[in-house]
């Protein structure tokens, strides 16, 4: 468990609170001079946020026209940035959850949440509000993460529903290839036609295998860039593009403009201090 203080932000890694279902858990505390707007980048994970004080105000339009306010937020897969209003003082825990785990633990396919952020109680049940209040009352991060892990293990102990095995296997295959495998090879791997596999993916996840693959590739690139920033090394974007399977640097920039609404360099500039402090934990675990 690691905490890094950046003056305005403090992030604390929670470790593996539920391996196989939760990719990362991070506690956060902010004390800002003024409210700011933060970009929530698309990723191959669902986002769960439990706040301890001020609620989260989020939406998918920078104007805030579709903004929702809640202390418990569950965000589905999306392909454009989410806009999150951050008050001067805020603390809580954010989880990156594998989409297929939502059905297993709570009986709801992630496809029902595509391009949406909802009150987590609507999906995770009223018990999650009791959890949030308990975590807020606990005095330290180790105790909070231990209580969170206990809650998640209890939820995972009773499998409510299973995704189609072809979808689960296809997800593993896409992650193994970091989003760079061909759709024909993927379909052949799970012994389905490409059209049938796309239909199953859309029903389960709300997007096609190709869209999921692009998110995986982008997540791989984002992780490499964030790692370089934390190591105080200027990211070589051309090298990142090549290592992550992009045709060239311009294709990486294209994905950043779609997913982050800006170029990689401007995203790094805007998020530099947060990344250095430990923000943006992995949303998928890739093989070495």
From TrEMBL:
Q: Which InterPro entries match?
A: AraC_XylS_family_regulators (IPR050204), Homeodomain-like_sf (IPR009057), HTH_AraC (IPR018060)
Q: Which residues form the HTH araC/xylS-type domain?
A: 182-270
**Which one of the record's GO molecular function terms can you name?**
sequence-specific DNA binding
Can you tell which superkingdom this protein's organism belongs to? Bacteria
UniProt keyword terms in alphabetical order: DNA-binding, Transcription, Transcription regulation
- Name this protein carries in UniProt: AraC-type DNA-binding protein
């Amino acid at each position: 468990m690691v905490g890094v203080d950046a003056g305005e932000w403090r992030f604390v890694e929670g470790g593996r609170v539920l391996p196989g279902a939760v990719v990362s858990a991070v506690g956060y505390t902010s004390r800002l001079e003024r409210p700011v707007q933060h970009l929530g980048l698309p990723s191959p994970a669902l986002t769960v946020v439990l706040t301890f004080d001020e609620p989260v105000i989020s939406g998918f339009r920078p104007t805030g026209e579709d903004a929702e306010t809640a202390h418990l937020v569950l965000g589905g897969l999306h392909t454009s940035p989410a806009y999150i209003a951050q008050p001067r003082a805020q603390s809580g825990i954010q989880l990156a959850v594998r989409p297929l785990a939502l059905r297993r633990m709570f009986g709801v396919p992630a496809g029902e949440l595509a391009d949406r952020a909802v009150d987590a109680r609507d999906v995770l049940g009223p018990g999650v509000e009791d959890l949030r209040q308990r975590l807020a009352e606990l005095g330290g991060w180790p105790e909070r993460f231990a209580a969170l892990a206990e809650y998640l293990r209890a939820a995972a102990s009773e499998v409510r529903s299973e995704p189609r095995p072809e979808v689960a296997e296809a997800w593993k295959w896409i992650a193994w290839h970091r989003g760079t495998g061909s759709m024909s090879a993927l379909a052949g791997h799970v012994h389905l036609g490409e059209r049938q596999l796309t239909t199953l993916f859309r029903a389960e996840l709300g997007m096609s295998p190709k869209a999921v693959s692009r998110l995986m590739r982008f997540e791989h690139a984002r992780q490499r860039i964030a790692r370089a920033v934390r190591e105080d090394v200027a990211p070589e974007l051309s090298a990142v593009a090549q290592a992550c399977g992009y045709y060239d640097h311009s294709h990486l920039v294209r994905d950043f403009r779609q997913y982050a609404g800006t170029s990689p360099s401007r995203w790094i500039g805007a998020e530099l201090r947060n990344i250095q402090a430990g923000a943006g934990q992995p949303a998928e675990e890739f093989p070495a």
